[in-house]
Design a protein that fits this description.
By secondary structure, this protein is of the alpha+beta class. The chain is built from 19 helices and 34 strands. The strands form 9 sheets. It has a 6-stranded mixed beta sheet, with helices on both faces. The protein has a 6-stranded antiparallel beta barrel with strand order 7-9-15-12-11-16. Helix 7 crosses helix 8, helix 17 packs across helix 18 and helix 18 packs across helix 19. The longest helix has 21 residues.
Length: 622
């Protein structure tokens, strides 16, 4: 069942609801207050089948200024807009505001409907038509068809249906390749079934039994049942008005403005880069950190706005900028939004999301502005390259969802082949970002080598904790391995050093080295302790740290032995085992001509190295 969504727009009491009833036979005013007052407060829904076979769902939105946020909730996700203008009044304030809103929501197909034509004489109708066309010529509706109808008598309805049918045929099915997402515009409870949320599925497809999440909170839920136009279905596809019966979720956990989507397929953000403009008749100038109302999907949020590259944005002007949310918003690249002032309330403009997970910029430089332009309107390779440069070390899945590029796979391979991007296992990074990491690591290692001239390198753990570029263990290890493969650094024994670094002893340090090595060798297997050898002498301690990685070693972290003597003791242990079958502590002690204490230290070290293991009071070889 192919569907399209038609939305009404227009001033209060211009006949939107009666027009919907004439098309569908259904009254979308369902609230008692709506019927009593004769105005639409909440969103109304109805549907009918077009001659082409497509089912047209109609969203009837309020026209009264007080209910404008309900209109915004309904206007998102529609394929065709019907702008309703009454012949007895013409273009009115809410007509203009609704037209501005529709222009920012990027609706490709629209039709203007002049209603109540039987209420006016021909002369007044022609005057209203002339004024309407004059106003529309400077709007996105300049080329939209204009149909005259009288909803009560049915005059002109067939002509209107014909136009809607033609537009429906030209409306492509929305892609189901993207992840499923629906902005919730109504929530209610049904006895025996539980929570039901409605909206237009803006991407992908949902099936009964699918696991989903309610954003921005991320509450898990399951699709128990799906309805399209009051009919139970097994699957809902992008572009269809959908009612989702949710299992495992209470009505208090989902509200209008929430987004239902597959887990990890959307971005909950508090900062986003945008392209925005102000309408030509806006009575407001946007300056840095101005507070505004932002409408995206079916949600209303208070935000602050920062224009880029200009001090202020005035009526009719466009700019790039950044939106700062007080609460998390759930968005994707390319999502349209509308801006309104807080007080007095006025629709002043709108725009599109350029980067839903932008960083805060301490200062907006020309480079940052150029990056935002490329993320918005660059060629496919430039756009993807810029996103990777700005958001390094993301997986392909995350990049696909972030960039929303139809030719993603081909573009990615092109950039990899040209060396404009680098793959690190399942992560991607820009060469410039590798340069940033390299510069930071080299700076840290150079300072370390200058401070500790005799140490072979900084521990990996210390280097990771001091660098700021790579946040996770995996990312740090992959980048460090890349530098190692390029002979920038060397890694050994969990120590990292600049590739061409080697410890160099000064003449005085050479003297200390000879002194310490002589002392240790002279002691033989009567092992001297570190305090005995170096005391509190800092220069001796530094040389000793160097020697413990070279010619000397420490047992139990305390007693020092020459490495050659240690290897000799291992051979003695092997000889004793070959002769007697076991290594007795007393025999080992006598062969080394040392005390029981030091012989036992050596045997315990052999145990740790898996050369020997205890067998009662003795040792045997492994």
């Amino acid at each position: 069942m192919e569907s399209i969504v038609i939305g009404t727009a227009g001033h209060i009491d211009h006949g939107k609801t009666i027009l919907v009833k004439a098309l569908t036979g259904r009254d979308t005013d369902t609230l008692e207050e709506e019927k009593r007052r004769g105005i639409t407060i909440n969103l109304g829904f109805a549907y009918f089948t077009l001659p082409c076979g497509k089912v047209a769902g109609i969203v009837d939105v309020p026209g009264h200024e007080r209910f404008i946020k309900n209109m915004l909730a309904g206007a998102s996700g529609i394929d065709i807009a019907m702008v309703v203008i009454a012949a007895n009044e013409g273009v009115m304030p809410q007509t203009k505001e609704h037209i501005d809103i529709l222009s920012y929501l990027d609706i490709e197909r629209s039709i203007v409907v002049l209603t109540k034509i039987d209420m006016v004489d021909e002369e007044l109708k022609e005057l209203v038509l002339e004024d309407t066309k004059e106003y529309l010529k400077d709007t996105f509706l300049r080329d939209a068809p204009l149909v005259e109808v009288d909803s009560l008598s049915g005059k002109g309805i067939d002509v209107l249906v014909g136009h809607l049918d033609g537009m429906a045929v030209q409306t492509d099915r929305r892609s189901v390749e993207k992840d499923a997402r629906m902005s919730v515009d109504r929530v209610f409870s049904v006895n025996g079934f539980g929570t039901v949320a409605t909206g237009t599925l803006s991407g992908g497809k949902l099936q009964v039994g699918d696991e989903v999440a309610i954003y921005p909170q991320g509450f898990p839920a399951k699709v128990r049942n799906l309805q399209i136009h009051e009919q139970n279905v097994c699957e809902a596809r992008a572009g269809q008005r959908t009612a989702i019966n949710l299992a495992g979720i209470a009505t208090t956990q989902v509200s209008r403005g929430c987004v239902i989507a597959k887990k990890d397929s959307v971005f909950a953000t508090k900062v986003m880069d945008v392209r925005f403009s102000l309408s030509s008749d806006a009575h407001f100038t946007v300056k840095k950190m101005d507070r505004l109302k932002l409408y995206i999907g079916a949600r209303e949020l208070i935000v602050k706005i920062i224009p880029f590259g200009v001090r202020q944005v005035s009526a009719g002007q466009e700019a790039y900028g950044q939106i700062l949310f007080e609460q998390e918003a759930v968005v994707r690249k390319g999502d349209p939004f509308v801006l309104r002032t807080i007080s007095p309330v006025e629709t002043i403009g709108g725009g599109k999301v350029v980067d839903p997970t932008a960083l805060r910029y301490p200062k907006v430089t020309q480079e940052i502005l150029d990056n935002v332009r490329l993320k918005d309107a660059g060629s496919a390779p430039d756009m993807l390259e810029t996103f990777v440069r700005v958001h390094p070390l993301l997986t392909k899945n995350m990049l696909t969802r972030l960039v929303c590029l139809a030719s993603f796979e081909e573009t990615l391979q092109e950039l990899l082949a040209a060396g404009r991007l680098i793959r690190l296992q399942d992560l991607f990074i820009h060469p410039e970002s590798v340069g940033v990491f390299r510069k930071e690591v080299m700076g840290l290692l150079q300072n370390y080598h200058q401070t500790y001239t005799l140490r072979r390198g900084m521990s990996k753990a210390e280097l990771q904790s001091r660098q700021t570029f790579a946040g996770g263990d995996k990312e740090f290890s992959l980048l460090l391995s890349l530098l190692e493969s390029r002979n920038v650094v060397k890694v050994a024994d969990n120590l990292v050093a600049i590739a061409d670094f080697s410890p160099r002893l000064s003449s005085r340090q050479q003297e200390i080295r000879a002194e310490l090595e002589g002392q240790v060798r002279q002691c033989g297997y009567t092992l001297p302790s570190l305090p005995e050898l170096v005391g509190n002498y800092e220069k001796k301690l530094q040389v000793m740290e160097f020697l413990l990685k070279d010619t000397l070693m420490a047992l139990d972290g305390q007693f020092v032995i020459d490495r050659q003597l240690y290897q000799a003791s291992r051979e003695i242990a092997k000889e004793l085992a070959a002769t007697h079958g076991v290594i007795k502590l007393s025999d080992f002690r006598d062969r080394l001509q040392t005390s029981r204490k030091y012989a036992l230290l050596l045997l315990e070290r052999f145990d740790k190295e898996k050369l020997t293991k205890r067998a009662g009071e003795d040792r045997i070889l492994l």
